[in-house]
Amino acid sequence: MANTRHFLTLTDFTTDELHGLIQRADELKKLFRSRTPHETLKGRVLGMIFEKSSTRTRVSFEAGMAQLGGDAIFLSPRDTQLGRGEPIEDSARVLSQMVDAVMIRTFEHEKVETFAKYSSVPVINALTDDFHPCQLIADMQAYFEVNGDIKGKTVTWIGDGNNMCNSYINAARMFDFELNVCCPEGYEPDAKLLDENKGRVNILRSLEASVKGSSLVVTDVWASMGQEEEAQKRMQAFAGYQVNPALMDKAASDALFMHCLPAHRGEEISHDMLDDPRSVVWEEAGNRMHAQKALLEFLINGKFGE
Ligand code: CP
Ligand code: NVA
User: Could you give the domains of the chain?
Assistant: First the structure.
């Protein structure tokens, strides 16, 4: 609906709003850690539609809403009419009369767009085949916490040009950094996004060249949810596209390593990569909750805080 704000990709927010969100996420993290009550969404309810598996996303949204004084309802296609073919438009019109925001994890990105079109409450993309913006706000919070502003830095994406990679392209635009994408031929990110971000995003084939001067190295699984049948073929295509401490040694001296998780040790990362001192994956994962709490406040209350 016309005036309802949504978060389907990072570009739904302005750069100032994204910076404000990270700042508020830091405050919320402090309030959480000091056990200071911060019930800014008392009586509010989040609907959570999951058509794909999740650990982090589900728990971070559910725990986050509880800490903000609200509630969350988990909806799976297995036991709702969504799985029996009720049109997404109808579900959007009904659910948005009962809850204050809806979070959706699904396959086709068009599905979250359709839901948002017919929803009178904010809709949050909790991962589609094309984008994973909630992960990016947590990643940016983690980067800012350790190294300060990412503006002007070089970031390297290694591996599949998938939903996370597309979201890193959007982040490069919104947070003003340069992105090297190192992927095998045929596994590049979205062509339209690449075209729109020419001059900011470079496609490279050499891992070593791609991490040179980089302050953040990021990777993800070779086969995403929904690509299980391609897993064998992908294992071959991505062989060698592995982030390990030796590769990190070739990046900038302040380089951090991130992975949205779950990770496959021995594939896209070496067995020791998550334990490397440059890895901030646990902070990154924990920030999902703080960043999304800030997002929920902003979308539901129209501002950060009460
Ligand atoms: N990173 C992430 O979204 O994790 P889950 O699939 O566990 O939610
Ligand atoms: N690219 C992965 C991210 C999981 C959080 C997937 O879509 O399965």
Answer: 10-131+286-301 (3.40.50.1370), 138-284 (3.40.50.1370)
Report the pLDDT averaged over residues 29-42: 98
The 8-class DSSP code of residue 113 comes to H
Model confidence band, residue 129 (pLDDT cutoffs 50, 70, 90):
very high
Residues recognised as catalytic = 105, 132, 135, 220, 260, 288
Distance 36 CA to ligand 2 centre (A): 33
**Ligand 1 atom closest to the CA of 285, numbered from 1:** 1
Question: What are the backbone dihedrals phi and psi of residue 29, each rounded to the nearest 5 degrees, phi first?
Answer: -65, -40
Counting from 1 in the atom list of ligand 1, the atom nearest the Cα of 105 is 8
The pocket around ligand 2, CB under 6 angstroms, is made up of 127, 162-164, 220-221, 224-225, 260
pTM of structure: 0.98
- Work out the number of other CB atoms within 10 angstroms of the CB of residue 173: 18
Give the whole-angstrom CA distance, residue 157 versus residue 151. Answer: 16
Q: What amino acid occupies position 195?
A: D
Establish how many alpha carbons lie within 13 A of residue 233's alpha carbon, considering only the half-sphere containing its beta carbon: 7
- Quote the pLDDT of residue 306: 81
Ligand nearest to the CA of 167: 2
d(CA 76, CA 176): 37
